[in-house]
């Protein structure tokens, strides 16, 4: 089917109000490589679908640029929708980056963006020194340029509470000294590269760089700039690159909104090794030697690297379990071990069911999953039954699998920390807990036997990054949907009006890490209000909700408050906690536009809820057991 | 003039697709005045769609000059004759 026919079919689906069908089909045919007219027509079809029908997360984004972005903005909206975002885009007048930012009366601040994107290019970076300039002069000029950019970031943050996205300079291909430029610090090429590195070094929390220079290289630097459209209408990159820039940046925006994928579910036969383990046996599968045997090692090595950066790995394979596990246990060329896999499902059930089970076991949404399978029939089955799961098309040749996966930009992130390093362990321990749980007939006995200890502490600089990450990424257990950067949290939580508490949980199977945080606001009328409450779903239903509720009540009493209030702001993903406050003894206190208000009066008692969790307080010197 | 007829048909479809209006029927004197959505931004979209459809590359100078349908047809006919 030609693209024209496919677009006509999608138009018909929209006319029939089959919006989900249209969205799915658009996702299937979308490619960053399509020429601009196709990108534009797809964007138009997407705009014809009411965003509320798709339940996309809304994001207000302000675009500031020294180039023309009207055409790009249209296509960006399309790719953002595919990544789960309904963008509301405001564009500053052409070429007014500084003026718009420095004038706090400008439309930027009236718009109240969630994200301000400074879409600069190398043309906006005023940096040059005479040929042959010494290192000291080069350093001074680069620092001055980086300072100038950092000042803009500060000015934005002064005027509004938003995240900032800033482009790296796309190092141009037109040069004067040719290859010699890389050999000296004073050349344009070296200056721009130093400037880009300087931005990364000076980037405060809440500011992300968008690597335009890398995207230019992905597209091909020779064709990156179409001089016709620079001279004619100030378009800074070729129209053919529009889809790629939009796809790559939409992935970053989606990560900034906490919507990036979290888990990769891989098939085994002909995906992680060549051949069929059940038929070919350990000696017969292709892994390690021969061209495609090496390619399968390459795939495994890549998945292992993903796991080490915090992506959860799972397996879904049609196999007998013992056969499926054999290579992991005794093939010398396996790069992945069973310890790398959080949930291992090898059976003869259909894969959609297996994947649904994996999501349930891990307590993550289906829209956090990516499914990797060489078999087009399995891919199509999963796409049909679980449209929220991302299923990349894989090429015929396994040597190209990794590139195909990378191309989709599923696993963008805005941070990396200890939590990410240990995530795989957390989830693997959880799977062991589940096995253990099945040996009990009564939940309380099971919870008691876990020997849980919770750590509680104030929001200190050490925990700030993880708390910001947890607030940024939590979707299911997030009562109000707030998003705060580290800087915002640091400014907000003063421990006189606004209080921040974090919670950690460990048990006989291991440490779950920092798994919950609350931001509480003490209000004038003796009310302690729960502004934000997030919790990792991996510790759900272990009594942590009750424990935290008791902590909040304890703090409220300490502060002389007579009641605690909270909100539930419904989103597409947080129905899990719709009934939380009711379960914790709060009374309904009104409703507006779907948001429910809850109140707990302390003078009428509000006794502590029972849990099996012991409490420890975090102090500067370490953890002290208090009960 | 079969070639010119063919060019007109394809160009008509490009207009319909670019301006998302199946009722558009192009004629030589048609300009941006005749189509509400035809502004400087969509003019570029139109030119890009034409370039794609006919697999040609217009010069920066030509991009600005193509202000009516007649000129487009003339240019496309010339370029395809030259091929």
Automatic annotation (TrEMBL), chain A:
<dbReference type="InterPro" id="IPR049369">
    <property type="entry name" value="BF1531-like_N"/>
</dbReference>
<feature type="domain" description="BF1531-like N-terminal">
    <location>
        <begin position="60"/>
        <end position="250"/>
    </location>
</feature>
<dbReference type="GO" id="GO:0016788">
    <property type="term" value="F:hydrolase activity, acting on ester bonds"/>
</dbReference>
<dbReference type="Pfam" id="PF21211">
    <property type="entry name" value="FkbH_N"/>
</dbReference>
<dbReference type="InterPro" id="IPR010037">
    <property type="entry name" value="FkbH_domain"/>
</dbReference>
<dbReference type="InterPro" id="IPR023214">
    <property type="entry name" value="HAD_sf"/>
</dbReference>
<dbReference type="InterPro" id="IPR036412">
    <property type="entry name" value="HAD-like_sf"/>
</dbReference>
<dbReference type="InterPro" id="IPR036514">
    <property type="entry name" value="SGNH_hydro_sf"/>
</dbReference>
<protein>
    <submittedName>
        <fullName>Methoxymalonyl-ACP biosynthesis protein FkbH</fullName>
    </submittedName>
</protein>
<dbReference type="InterPro" id="IPR010033">
    <property type="entry name" value="HAD_SF_ppase_IIIC"/>
</dbReference>
UniProtKB/TrEMBL annotation, chain B:
<dbReference type="InterPro" id="IPR009081">
    <property type="entry name" value="PP-bd_ACP"/>
</dbReference>
<protein>
    <submittedName>
        <fullName>Acyl carrier protein</fullName>
    </submittedName>
</protein>
<dbReference type="InterPro" id="IPR036736">
    <property type="entry name" value="ACP-like_sf"/>
</dbReference>
<feature type="domain" description="Carrier">
    <location>
        <begin position="1"/>
        <end position="80"/>
    </location>
</feature>
């Amino acid at each position: 089917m030609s693209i024209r026919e496919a677009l006509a079919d999608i138009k018909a689906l929209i006319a029939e109000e089959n919006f989900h069908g249209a969205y799915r089909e658009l996702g299937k045919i979308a490619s960053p490589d399509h020429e601009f007219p196709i990108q534009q027509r797809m964007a138009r079809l997407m705009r014809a679908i009411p965003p509320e029908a798709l339940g996309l997360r809304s994001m207000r984004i302000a675009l500031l640029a020294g180039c023309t972005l009207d055409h790009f903005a249209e296509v960006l909206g399309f790719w953002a929708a595919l990544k789960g975002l309904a963008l509301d885009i405001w564009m500053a007048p052409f070429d007014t980056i500084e003026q718009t930012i420095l004038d706090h009366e400008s439309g930027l601040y009236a718009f109240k963006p969630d994200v301000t994107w400074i879409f600069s290019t190398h043309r906006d970076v005023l940096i040059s020194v005479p040929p042959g300039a010494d290192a000291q002069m080069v350093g001074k000029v680069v620092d001055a340029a980086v300072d100038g950019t950092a000042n803009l970031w500060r000015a934005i943050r002064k005027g509004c509470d938003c995240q900032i996205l800033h482009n790296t300079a796309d190092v141009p291909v037109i040069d004067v000294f040719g290859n010699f430029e890389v050999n000296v610090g004073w050349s344009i090429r070296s200056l721009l590269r130093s400037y880009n590195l300087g931005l990364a070094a000076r980037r405060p929390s809440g500011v992300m760089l968008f690597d335009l220079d890398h995207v230019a290289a992905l597209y091909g630097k020779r064709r990156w700039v179409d001089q016709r459209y620079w001279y004619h209408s100030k378009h800074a990159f070729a129209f053919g690159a529009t889809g790629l820039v939009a796809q790559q940046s939409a992935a970053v925006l989606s990560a900034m909104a906490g919507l990036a994928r979290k888990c990769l579910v891989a098939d085994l036969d002909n995906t992680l090794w060549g051949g069929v383990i059940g038929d070919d046996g350990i000696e017969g599968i292709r892994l390690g030697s021969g061209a495609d045997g090496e390619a399968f090692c390459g795939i495994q090595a890549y998945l292992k690297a993903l796991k080490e950066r915090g992506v959860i790995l799972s397996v879904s394979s049609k196999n007998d379990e013992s056969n499926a596990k054999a290579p992991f246990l005794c093939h010398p060329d396996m790069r992945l071990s069973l310890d790398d896999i959080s949930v291992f499902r090898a059976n003869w059930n259909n894969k959609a069911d297996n994947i649904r089970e994996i999501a349930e076991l891990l307590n993550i949404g289906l829209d956090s999953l990516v499914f990797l399978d060489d078999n087009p029939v399995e891919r199509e089955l999963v796409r049909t039954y679980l449209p929220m799961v991302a299923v990349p098309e894989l090429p015929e040749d396994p040597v190209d699998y990794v590139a195909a996966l990378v191309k989709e930009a599923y696993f963008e992130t805005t941070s990396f920390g200890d939590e990410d390093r240990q995530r795989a362990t957390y989830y693997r321990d959880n799977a062991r807990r589940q096995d253990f749980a099945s040996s009990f007939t009564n939940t309380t006995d099971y919870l008691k036997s876990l020997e849980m200890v919770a750590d509680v502490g104030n929001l200190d600089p050490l925990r700030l990054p993880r708390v910001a990450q947890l607030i940024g990424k939590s979707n299911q257990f997030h009562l109000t949907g707030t998003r705060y950067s580290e800087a915002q949290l640091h400014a907000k939580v003063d421990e006189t009006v606004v209080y921040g508490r974090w919670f950690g949980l460990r048990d006989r199977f291991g440490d779950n890490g920092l798994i919950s945080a609350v931001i509480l606001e003490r209000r004038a009328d003796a009310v302690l209000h729960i502004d934000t409450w997030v919790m990792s779903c991996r510790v759900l239903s272990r009594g942590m909700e009750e424990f935290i509720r008791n902590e909040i009540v304890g703090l409220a009493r300490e502060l002389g408050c007579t009641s605690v209030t909270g909100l539930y702001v419904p989103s597409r993903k947080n129905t899990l906690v719709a009934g939380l406050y009711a379960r914790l003894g709060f009374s309904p206190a009104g409703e507006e536009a779907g948001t429910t208000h809850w109140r707990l009066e302390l003078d009428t008692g509000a006794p502590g809820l029972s849990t099996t969790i012991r409490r420890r307080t975090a102090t500067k010197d370490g953890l002290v057991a208090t009960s | 003039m079969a070639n010119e007829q063919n060019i007109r048909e394809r160009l008509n479809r490009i207009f319909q697709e670019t301006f998302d209006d199946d009722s558009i029927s192009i004629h030589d004197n048609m300009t941006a005045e005749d189509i509400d959505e035809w502004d400087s931004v969509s003019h570029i979209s139109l030119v890009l769609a034409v370039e794609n459809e006919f697999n040609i590359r217009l010069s920066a100078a030509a991009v600005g000059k193509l202000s009516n349908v007649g000129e487009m047809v003339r240019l496309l006919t010339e370029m395809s004759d030259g091929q």
